Every structure is written in C-alpha cells, then in structure tokens.
C-alpha cells in the first residue's frame, strides 16, 4: 500500500505545476488582450515579410542546386560552387563501400537541409584539390563556410567508428560544425521522419561490400 504522506506530497507537486501552467496561460491571454488592431497588423506584416524573405532564400538556394546531392563534374568547378553558397558539404570519394554508405546519408540530409549545398567529387580525379586540402582518408567531408574549409569529417571515426551509424549521427556532427542549421528550419521538410534518420543504410546483401578498403 502506498505511503499516504508520499501520495500527499505528489498531489501537492502536481497541483503546483498545474497552477504554474495555468498562470502562464493566463499571462499569455492577457498579453493578447492588450494588443490593439495596430499591434496585430504590425505582427502580421512582420510575419509576412519573414515568410517572403524565406521564400526568396529558398528560391535562390534551389537555383544554386541546394536540396539535392550532386556530383561536381570537374575539379575546376569546385571553386565556383563553394563561392556561390554560404555553406557547402563536399564529399571526397572513390568507388568503394564506405563512400557509398556516406553517399546515402548525404542524399537524405541534402533534402532535409535546404540551407546547405551537398556535393561530391572524385578524389582520384581531383589531384590538385586532394593535395591542397590534404585529403588522405576516404571518405572525407570538407565542411566549407564562406568559401573556406572550416572543418573535416574524416572516415567514420567521429560517427561511432562503424558504417552502421545513423543519419542523425552525421547530422549532429554537421550541426556542431554549424554547416547546417541544427533545427533544419530552412529545410524542405520541417518535420523529419524518425524512421528515416535512425535507419542504417547498410544492406546485408550488398555486393559492393567486398570493395571496401
């Protein structure tokens, strides 16, 4: 049987929390009541301007190739791409299993984070860039802000040391580097699918697994 004193304490705590919530709601209602039509019009206008600005941003981002994960066709194109977008995640890859794992995660994040350009470039066909940016381990992600490489994600060491990492693990790492918005407020999909981000991209019967090195 439950201790009556413990029950009494719990009831008091619940009542205290309920009262605090009720007071907060009352304050918000009172604040709304104090707003006149001019205040409401100003709030509405400010919100419309914010929405217009975001729509213009999205339109510009789409024009630059944001929202999709694409390949840089030639080494010389790298510079114009990173100068055009404020935030770029560039995957230096080769044709092997680890890089294909990274591809699948980046394809998901490119759609979720419209604010950032996601691209890939073949490291072995880009010797100048690979040497200049000291790319040794593949896959390597160059995290670029304002046309300058700000950080790197090298291999899977920071993602649990395994190719079984979840998309959200990579998302968290990119968010810490501030190369994506952590809340994804500028993404095409404001609400993420938990099943999609949690799912590992490993497929047990993938013939490419033998190509890893």
UniProtKB/TrEMBL annotation:
Q: Which organism is it from?
A: Theobroma cacao
This chain's protein is named Thioredoxin domain-containing protein 9
Disordered: annotated segments: 184-213
State the Gene Ontology BP annotations: microtubule cytoskeleton organization
Residues of the Thioredoxin domain: 75-156
Q: Which GO terms describe its cellular component?
A: cytoplasm
Spell out the SUPFAM superfamilies in the cross-references: Thioredoxin-like
